[in-house]
Amino acid sequence: MTTFTWINAAGGLWDTPANWNPGSLAGPGDAALMTGIDGGNTVVIPAGDTIDVGSLVLNSGGASLELDGTLAVAGSLVLTAGALLATGSLSAGAISDASLLDFIGSHTLDATPLSLGNGGALQVQDAGDGAVATLTLGPNETVTVTGASATITGATANNEAVVNDGSIVAAVAGGHLAITPLNFTNAGWLRVTDETLTIGYDDGY
User: Fold this and answer.
1) What is the DSSP string of 62-118?
2) Kindly report the CA angle at 121 between 68 and 61, in degrees rounded to 5?
3) Confidence (pTM)
4) Count of alpha carbons within 13 angstroms of residue 177, beta-carbon side
5) Which 3-state string (H, E, C) describes 112-132?
6) Sign of the torsion formed by the C-alpha atoms of 115, 28, 88 and 79
7) What span, in angstroms and rounded, lies between the C-alpha atoms of 124 and 155?
8) Residue partners of 205: CB distance under 8 A and separation at least 6
9) ω into residue 17 within 30 of 0, thus cis?
10) How many CB atoms lie under 10 A from the CB of residue 95?
């Protein structure tokens, strides 16, 4: 296994070898490490690209990884700091310590264990196509809150919904979980212990 480290603080295209050290692209079984990206900058996986890596860590506060193509992570996808904005296809063995995971348009997570770190957010965003953007947590999906506060929500007030057919688990003493999309349907398990739970869209009034 080789570790490939992102070296362009300005962001750029994932598939440009010069943006990585060593100067080539990570492949299956390799580790991709994304640190040192300046806040406000974006790394893009373009539409039509298929990226297949062994593991991926995004740890660049204020930066974004924009997924327009396909990203397959065989092992762990760690989102310690920064945002993953997913319009395209995402799969991972597990997603951990998520700070912001934003699905644009309808997506389904199933059998991909997901943990939300402190202040972490899992959200769905209207794609602007007139359709309801629905994030579905499938029957084999478990979302676990590991930080003192976390949010499952819609990014805007337009055409967004979350459907839980799996399990949402929050058990951090004194913590707070807010589930606040415009539409929320729970047909699975919602287990909250020693935490405050808020359910329902907040329109600010």
Assistant:
1) EEEEEESSEEEEEEEEEEEEEEEEESSEEEEEEEEEEEEEEEES-EEE-S--EEEEE
2) 70
3) 0.94
4) 24
5) CCEEEEEEEEEEEECCCCCCC
6) positive
7) 6
8) none
9) no
10) 24
pLDDT digit string (tens) for 109-146? 999 999 999 999 999 999 999 899 999 999 999 999 99
pLDDT of residue 202: 59
Residue 100 has pLDDT above 90, yes or no: yes
Count CA within 13 A, CB hemisphere, residue 54: 10
Find, among 131, 125, 133, the residue nearest to 156 by Cα: 125
Cβ–Cβ under 8 Å, residues 121 and 142: no
| Amino acid of residue 14 | W
Q: Which residue has the tokens 């329109």?
A: 203
Mean pLDDT value across residues 1-20: 97
Q: What does the chain come to in residues?
A: 205
Please choose, from the candidates 32, 38, 22, the residue with its C-alpha nearest in 3D space to the C-alpha of residue 67. 32
* pLDDT tens profile 48-61: 999 999 999 999 99
